[in-house]
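From: lab user (bench 3)
To: helpdesk
Subject: output format question, protein + zinc ion

Hello, I'm new to running complex predictions and I'm not sure whether the block I got back is the full result or only part of it. Here's what I submitted:
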Amino acid sequence: MTDEMLQQWVERVSLQFFGRPFIHKATFNGRLKATGGRYFTKSHNIEISPHQLAAFGEEETEKIIKHELCHYHLHLMRRGYRHRDADFKLLLKQVGGSRYCRTLPEREERRRLPYKYKLVCRNCGMEYLRKRKVDPAKYVCGKCRGKLLIKSLDIPDRP
Ligand SMILES: [Zn+2]
Ligand SMILES: [Zn+2]
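Helpdesk reply: Thanks, we reran it on our side. This is the complete output you should expect:
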């Protein structure tokens, strides 16, 4: 799918679900990996991740487009356009947009990794779980600022 096709798609969704035209630019951005889309408050342009389309298909991508259009129209109408705003939440529900600028699978995968290490405070004994090995010298205890040491949790990858 080309940027031009995306532009037409966004314009169509805008008229159909919001009853207002989308008069700015919508483009694909291959560097968008963490989120499905982005809305720029300065330029009013929208970017959509092509990975989103590849991973979830057109139906899910249209929900992302609706999500970004909620930011867009509310911002232009000078209403609450941020995720936490009641205006945003209500409009998103009305048009059936995706709840979040959806996370792509690679990111979810990373989050599901088990904890393999813990940092233990030498001073107060507070423990901090870590998924990857880190250098304990680079951190201090969040509670007492004490020095930390790292311990393996010894969880085998497969039982
Ligand atoms: Zn958003
Ligand atoms: Zn401590």
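A quick orientation on your result: The pocket of zinc ion (ligand 1) is lined by residues 67, 71, 83, 101 (CB under 6 Å). Let us know if anything else is unclear.
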